[in-house]
Amino acid sequence: MSPPARPLTPARGGAETPASARKIASLALPALVVLAAEPLYVLVDTAVVGHLGPVPLAAVAVSGSVMSVAAWLGTLMSYGTTGRAARRFGAGDRAAAVAEGVQASWLALCVGVLLALLAQPLAGPLAHALAGDAETADAAAGWLRVAVLGAPGLLLAAAGNGWMRGVQDTRRPLIFVLGANVLSAILCPVLVYPVGWGLTGSAVANVVAQTISGGFFLHALIRETKQLRPDPQIILLQLRLGRDLLIRGGAFQACFLSATAVASRFGVASVGAHQIGLQLWFFSALALDAVAIAAQSLVGAALGGGSADEAQAVARKVTIAGGLSGVAFALLVTAGAGSIPAWFTPDAGIHAQAAIIWPWFIGLMPFAGVVYALDGVLIGAGDVRFLRNITLAATLLGFLPAIWIAYFFDLGLGGVWAGLALLILIRFVAAVWRWRSGRWAVTGVTR
Questions:
Q1: For this UniProt entry, which segments traverse the membrane (predicted)?
Q2: Which of 101, 87, 25 is nearest to 311 (CA)?
């Protein structure tokens, strides 16, 4: 059993307080490692499969885009669970916080099994719809049918991450996720080459990593509590929160898919440069999300403990941390302006198009750092409906009109990234206004 929650009252005599920079870092840094573990493993997997030839590599790219839906659902589940568990932990009721994890795990298991079952008949049609040729589609479908068997474990791990972050336990998720991914990174080349399973070996290694990680979190949950029965009432409340996060996430997906579609109409060099910029943007967002995760946990705990002032103090500090992190990324990107695109391709045309993107990237990073931090604050506070509404408004009134204007008036990548700037700046203004208004700081264990 883990120790009971300590009251979230300010420390005396100079001791660490829940809103201290050290406390924020103690939650954000392990979260950053956990967030980075899966993408780093994907890079290893891609490198291993890439040596099998262009068709297997293309197959993983196609089927991996389908599997990303499961990862996206896992992120939504994790974020929703963190805020609810943190409120109960902050109120001194660790058992209720863990109970949120129990119900999230039931939901994760059901959704994961459903995805695994649906993928068996649908893998072929999906792969053929996305792939450019029949050979790639057949290989992608075969990989997907095996890899999707890891979906229950992937979603169980997401639910586990959610409740453990809520009770401010960052050590065990770090061990669980890193251990499983390191094992799989070792297993992948062994199964692909010496064992001779080829592309199937890559899929099996994915399943092993996700199943072991999910198993670790499930074991920790069983050790924590004996109350493991499903509670439909709590699950429905989690689904309501997840619905708003799902709609919000869908708006982001529409933005990025539309941006890629428009960029591709400006030529191969343009879409290549856009892909480089977009992947770097996603990487930076991943790192900045670590601050948001710390905010979710600390804000939820403060409000659950009845202290709106403490929640405001956390919000102020994580907002500063997010802004400074964004500035740090902007400086790194500025320093690498002449060399980073060359890491991805030697093509001079793509380099020239990347030079159009770079000023937008650099200028937006500090604003994005603040936006991501305040996203974490508002998710931790349970103010998800506001986030949903402002994301939809920024998408429909800012991003989408801007990029389609860029297409019709042939404004090139500059016009596409101007749309991204509108998306970030509208969210920045709205999130800062919401933070300053204090309307999000509703105390108590429910929202």
A1: 24-44, 56-79, 104-123, 143-163, 175-197, 203-222, 245-268, 280-306, 318-344, 356-374, 386-409, 415-433
A2: 87
